[in-house]
Amino acid sequence: MEQIIEQSPDRGALAPAVLAVAVATFTVVTTEMLPVGLLTTLGDGLGLSDGTAGLTVTLPGVVAALAAPVLPVAVRRADRRSVLCALLALLAGANLLAALAPAFGVLLAARALVGVCIGGVWAVAAGLGVRLVRAEDAGRATAVIFSGIAVASVLGVPTGTLMGTLAGWRWTFAAMAGLALAVAALLALLLPPLPPRGAVRPAEIAGLLRIPALRAGLLAVALLVTGHFAAYTYVRPALERVPAISPEAVSGLLLGYGVAGVAGNFLAGAVAAHTPRRALLTVSAVLAGTVLLTARAGGSLPATVTLLVVWGLAYGGVSVSAQNWLMATVPAHREAGSALFAGIFNAAIALGALAGGRAADRFEVAGALWLGGTLAALALGAGLAGLAGRPGAGREPGRGSRTY
């Protein structure tokens, strides 16, 4: 692999660059998850069932899963700053197309373009923390970049839900188009030049799958994320089953979920910087128990609120824990590893939304929750089995040395 020698970055000068990448991840995740908060209004506006409307989450996940490993290969010689700016500009166009879509088919085409942006942004951005700050600050920078996921839940989805309730779902997508265009300009202004560190090739990505620890972790992540999105895609209908709950109250509960997610991101990030596997196993256990209990909460508002907050706290730690663990497992192949991780992650989002939709249509919303909790429990089992079945079980990847 071609080696590119870079000067050690100055943390003070590049802190705005880390924040700019975090804003980019916030924007793509908000766009990806927007239909979760708009599911009812979008379905009513286009005459769709909850399961069919859920395809607006499923399709971007499928496309992102394909784009994540392909895009780094396709743009292997391009400066990563230029790639990120182009993807955010494309995201703006996709959101504008969604806002103007005259029929469900056009909306799905727009969401397919969103999938290209999601896969590309995550494949590039997930491993940038180590390039934008000094080595000792890379774990914190990665947590900041991944905080865009949790902040999307705090600000993005609840704000989009409220806007959809007040002005309609089309205006929500139009607003996201403007935000994505502004973020593209921000990235162009704040990011330093980021030449590729050697060309990523398909054989390099495929070769990573021969690493047993990587396979075990990816299986656990796939099951966990599939389970989460099988349940979370239908969280709004689940909340609406609570007696006398208003649309405004639903937005407030989603806000509480998001606030907990931000806390979970940084809490798990602090743990994952030293023991990433332990952090991932812990959030798997908490997520499994919480989703299964939510399925049994029924119409109890106090129980639903408590469980939703714990759910957000647990899921907020998934991405940063998994990414830290991945970087510790394949430190010499960060971009290829990130591309593989992003592909698996987004395939799991798509599969989860699809499986949850089928369960919701056949067994009502509770069926999606039971399915999600069961898959999260299987993720915990897969992680424990992978740890027990390898030599040196009980040692964290990178234990005794720096994570990055």
From TrEMBL:
<keyword id="KW-1003">Cell membrane</keyword>
<keyword id="KW-1133">Transmembrane helix</keyword>
<feature type="transmembrane region" description="Helical">
    <location>
        <begin position="51"/>
        <end position="71"/>
    </location>
</feature>
<dbReference type="InterPro" id="IPR020846">
    <property type="entry name" value="MFS_dom"/>
</dbReference>
<dbReference type="GO" id="GO:0005886">
    <property type="term" value="C:plasma membrane"/>
</dbReference>
<feature type="transmembrane region" description="Helical">
    <location>
        <begin position="110"/>
        <end position="130"/>
    </location>
</feature>
<dbReference type="GO" id="GO:0022857">
    <property type="term" value="F:transmembrane transporter activity"/>
</dbReference>
<feature type="transmembrane region" description="Helical">
    <location>
        <begin position="305"/>
        <end position="326"/>
    </location>
</feature>
<keyword id="KW-0472">Membrane</keyword>
<feature type="domain" description="Major facilitator superfamily (MFS) profile">
    <location>
        <begin position="17"/>
        <end position="391"/>
    </location>
</feature>
<feature type="transmembrane region" description="Helical">
    <location>
        <begin position="280"/>
        <end position="299"/>
    </location>
</feature>
<feature type="transmembrane region" description="Helical">
    <location>
        <begin position="12"/>
        <end position="31"/>
    </location>
</feature>
<dbReference type="InterPro" id="IPR050189">
    <property type="entry name" value="MFS_Efflux_Transporters"/>
</dbReference>
<protein>
    <submittedName>
        <fullName>MFS transporter</fullName>
    </submittedName>
</protein>
<feature type="transmembrane region" description="Helical">
    <location>
        <begin position="368"/>
        <end position="389"/>
    </location>
</feature>
<dbReference type="InterPro" id="IPR011701">
    <property type="entry name" value="MFS"/>
</dbReference>
<dbReference type="Pfam" id="PF07690">
    <property type="entry name" value="MFS_1"/>
</dbReference>
<feature type="transmembrane region" description="Helical">
    <location>
        <begin position="83"/>
        <end position="104"/>
    </location>
</feature>
<feature type="transmembrane region" description="Helical">
    <location>
        <begin position="169"/>
        <end position="191"/>
    </location>
</feature>
<feature type="transmembrane region" description="Helical">
    <location>
        <begin position="212"/>
        <end position="234"/>
    </location>
</feature>
<dbReference type="InterPro" id="IPR036259">
    <property type="entry name" value="MFS_trans_sf"/>
</dbReference>
<feature type="transmembrane region" description="Helical">
    <location>
        <begin position="142"/>
        <end position="163"/>
    </location>
</feature>
<feature type="transmembrane region" description="Helical">
    <location>
        <begin position="338"/>
        <end position="356"/>
    </location>
</feature>
<feature type="transmembrane region" description="Helical">
    <location>
        <begin position="254"/>
        <end position="273"/>
    </location>
</feature>
<keyword id="KW-0812">Transmembrane</keyword>
